[in-house]
Amino acid sequence: MNYNNILYNTENNITTITINRPKKLNALNQETIKELHEAFKEANADKNTKVIIITGSGEKAFVAGADISEFADFSIEEGTDLAASGQHLLFDFVENLSTPVIAAVNGFALGGGLELAMACHFRVASDNAKMGLPEVSLGVIPGYGGTQRLPQLIGKGRAMELIMTASMIDANQALGFGLVNHVTTQDELLPLCEKIAGKILRNSSVAITSAIKAINANFKDGINGFQTEITEFGNCFGTDDFYEGTTAFLEKRKADFPGE
């Protein structure tokens, strides 16, 4: 598929999706959100893709926020629909994807940009990264899951302060808060993400999908995460990957997972 606002590349079982609106600091407009949905959907359906990395073009920004010019004159109903459709199309979609998604946060990740990074399964940041949810300075709140995912990742008190003050934190603060897993230089950001992806590639993609479901279940209202874990654990026993993994262990050799 051809995209106007993103770059899409698959190599060595890793698909890299790059938001490519450098003049707008990779801000998320509705077209870009729709394209990202299609790109993630395409990568998730591709049997050659075992890990997805999402990043922004240039050195200044991962995603500097939403494109405010698109919704500055929206009504209550239009604003509600904007948040609902965005969460459904992209943010919830990414969080629940069966393929692991790593956010390579290069530069500013503000508003919708940080919300996108938080929807990914984990985050790696460059040392020049700045992160925050500044929406209250515009008279609105985060609408793409920010009020839910930020407290889950860094705790309620810190999330309350960041959102209420509309403050930014740097990469090392984000690391200390547990918002990102690693901090590295801009030049080493994608290589580090690819190195981590390489470790993921050694393991069963089927089991990883089950792990994603079980971990996410703990954060969903009305769902018993322990029961989801039990169910997914049991399901693994019916897979070719389980047979290969246990057989390889007993035969003292490296497993060659078929991904089924």
Overview in brief:
With 260 residues, the chain is of the alpha/beta class. 47% of the residues lie in helices and 17% in strands.
3D architecture notes:
Helix content is 47%, strand content 17%. The protein has 260 residues and is an alpha/beta fold. It has 2 domains: 6-201, 2-enoyl-CoA Hydratase, Chain A, domain 1, CATH 3.90.226.10; 205-250. The strands form 2 sheets. The protein has a 6-stranded mixed sheet, sandwiched between helices. α1 packs parallel to α2 (76-95) and α2 runs parallel beside α3. It is globular and about 60 Å long. The two termini are 26 Å apart.
Distance between the termini: 26 Å
Please give the CATH architecture of the largest domain.
Alpha-Beta Complex
Tell me which oligomeric state these chains represent. Answer: single chain
Strand content: 15-25%
As laid out across the biggest beta sheet, the strand order is: 1-2-3-5-7-10
Q: What's the gyration radius in Å? A: 19 Å
Number of strands: 10
Which CATH class of the largest domain applies here? Alpha Beta
CATH topology call of the largest domain:
2-enoyl-CoA Hydratase, Chain A, domain 1
